[in-house]
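Might you be able to check the backbone structure tokens below? Thank you kindly.
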Amino acid sequence: MPDRLDTIESRLRRLEERIDRREMREVAVEPWQYLVHRQHPWRKQLYVKGRNMTARQLVGAMKANQLNEAAAATDNRVPVEAVREARAYVESNRELLETEAEIERLMLKRGGVVRVPQSVS
């Protein structure tokens, strides 16, 4: 039994360290409450706080699935306010997002992948 408790305690410590590192990667950006900056080699757009999802991905999924804000929030397990922020961010940063989508298309083309990001307009 003590060995099992030691194993569990060790796993919990490693999990806490992973959570701490993850939170440290996210940098708050004014005026956003639910959008954060993360280090990325070339991507500059903001991410949804605590999720491995960009603002563009959230809004794109919302539009592709024809969801309203409440349904998108439920579907992605985020507050409705996060969806609203993502929509406002996407609208006000269209040029950046289009540039990043083009970069993704070129990278996918070089890698031989056929699927490309679609416009969120």
User: Anything to note?
Assistant: The two ends are 58 Å apart (CA to CA). The longest strand covers residues 35-37. The chain has a mean pLDDT of 87. Helices lie at 2-25, 55-64, 69-76, 80-92, 94-111.
